[in-house]
Amino acid sequence: MVKDSNGNMWISTFRGGLNCYDPDKRRFIHYLNDGGEKVSGPLSNNIRKIILEPDSGLWVVYQEHSATISFFSFRRGLSLISRLKSRRI
């Protein structure tokens, strides 16, 4: 769990995707992988770790895709910017 500069709490879950608690509005926003071909949210709903990039976005590390991380930008309304995968040689 990490807290951003706006006071929002970002919570990683197993099978529940990425969740954000907005204390001002007292509500949760859920970001889930819908299983479709065009993935704009998390790659998986099993998230191992969240790393905050202050005032910029979040790095998300996945449970079953441990060699994959995604970066989501706050500047575009938490939109997926890049996805990095390691490759085995």
How does this structure look, described?
The protein has strands spanning 2-3, 9-12, 18-22, 27-31, 47-53, 57-62, 68-73, 79-85. The protein is mostly beta strands and 89 residues long. It has one domain. The protein has a four-stranded antiparallel beta sheet with strand order 1-2-3-4, with no helix packed on it. A four-stranded antiparallel beta sheet has the order 5-6-7-8, with no helix packed on it. Strand 6 (57-62) and strand 7 (68-73) form a beta hairpin. It starts with a strand and ends with a strand.
Largest sheet: 4 strands, antiparallel
Calculate the terminal CA-CA distance, rounded to whole Å: 34 Å
Low-confidence stretches: none
Radius of gyration using CA atoms only: 13 Å
Structural class, from secondary structure content?
Answer: mainly beta
User: Strand content of the residues, in percent?
Assistant: over 45%
Q: Choose one word for the global shape.
A: globular
Element-level helix/strand string: EEEEEEEE
Q: How many distinct folded domains?
A: 1
- Strand tally: 8
Strand order of the main beta sheet, please? 1-2-3-4
> How many helices does DSSP assign?
0
Q: Which descriptors apply to this entry?
A:
single chain; 89 residues; mainly beta; 4-stranded antiparallel sheet; 8 strands; 47% strand
Concise structural overview:
The chain contains no helices and eight strands. The protein has 89 residues and is an all-beta fold.
Secondary-structure topology with pairs:
Elements (H helix, E strand, L loop, with lengths): L1 E2 L5 E4 L5 E5 L4 E5 L15 E7 L3 E6 L5 E6 L5 E7 L4
Antiparallel strand pairs: 1-2, 2-3, 3-4, 5-6, 6-7, 7-8
